[in-house]
Amino acid sequence: MPIGMMIKPLRTVPRRLPAALIGVIATIAVAAIPIAALFAQERVAPFTVVETGRGYERLQDAVDAIGNARGSIAIAPGRYEQCAVQTGGQVSYLATQAGSAVFDGVTCEGKAALVLRGRSAEVSGLVFQNMRVPDYNGSGIRLEQGDLTVAGSWFRDSQQGILTHNDPAARLTIDRSTFTRLGTCEGSGGCAHSIYTGEYGQVRITRSRFEEGRGGHYVKARAARVDIASSSFDDAAGRGTNYMIDLPGGASGQISNNWFVQGQDKENYAAFIAVAAEGRAHDSSNLQVVGNDARFATGVDRDSIFVADWSGDLGGIGENTLDRRLTRYERIR
């Protein structure tokens, strides 16, 4: 499946929704980097700090070379059994050819291929696969603080795709990325998910694909605001999965113009979207759910709820295209 591939055409965001939602990845335009010049020699190291032109054999050495400054690392095509920890600065991790730089099975600190706790980070065109650790939280990216923008990347066959700590002042932005065969409920500490965020200020997911989950939720976000738009959630080949989107403490924002298919093999099929199932940590009166298409996979014969709301203050369920067996909204008491 090509990175970012969608099953159906996207629809226009309704006029009443914020027009600035889509198109947020201008800051990491890989085409603007003089990649050809960096790789013109016969043999270069796989990780090159763009600003200095110096190459490194180890990703960690390239990250350390940037330190607390701002810099970009151009990553050559290859399969890498490496990981890195960013403890400061603003670092961009950029594949020179999208989808050709694969980080495979190696984690730092028993957490992830990239452990990020600097001021900010950007990731573009990378593939993360086979991340597994003893506590069942092995991730492509562990975000511990700071802003993160991810574009055109693929997370697959791991316990989790992206996992964050808490940073209420920061933002996580994901665009044109794919999350495949992620999640597990094997661990004693609860389930892992394709994306699981702590108390972040904002989580924004656009033009991305979630598919073939292996447990847990596709997106679980404790952020105060979420904007999830023009993405697909294809659970047809999922195994033991739960909700498509879980906002356990509630949230403001919008869930708009997405495509949802619930599959047969579910641990919990009660709802597609859950709001404040673990308590009312955030006001949900400004959460809008509109323009979505939700249905069941071929051969699935059951009823479900499109939006299950424990908060009692959900802002509005607008026009959505729903399977006749779906209850549009239900207040859970």
Write up this protein.
The protein is mainly β. Helices cover 4% and strands 42% of the residues. It has two helices and 32 strands. The chain has helices at residues 35-38, 59-66; strands spanning 47-49, 54-56, 70-75, 78-80, 84-86, 90-95, 101-104, 112-116, 120-124, 126-129, 139-143, 147-151, 154-158, 160-164, 167-175, 178-182, 195-197, 200-206, 209-211, 219-221, 225-229, 232-234, 245-247, 252-256, 259-262, 271-275, 287-290, 293-296, 304-309, 316-317, 321-322, 326-331. A twelve-stranded mixed β-sheet has the order 2-1-3-6-9-12-15-18-21-24-27-30, with helices on one face. A ten-stranded parallel β-sheet has the order 4-7-10-13-16-19-22-25-28-31, with no helix packed on it. The longest helix is centred in the first third of the chain and has 8 residues, at 59-66. The protein is globular and about 60 Å long. The relative contact order is 0.11. The model is unreliable at 1-33 (pLDDT under 50).
Distance between the termini: 41 Å
Spatial order of strands in the largest sheet:
2-1-3-6-9-12-15-18-21-24-27-30
Radius of gyration: 20 Å
Please state the average pLDDT score: 90
- The tally of beta strands, per DSSP, is 32
Number of helices: 2
Helical content stands at under 10%
Contiguous low-pLDDT stretches (5 residues minimum) are: 1-33
Subunit organisation of the chains: single chain
Helical/strand content category: mainly beta
Biggest β-sheet: count, sense, barrel? 12 strands, mixed
What shape does the CA trace take?
A: globular
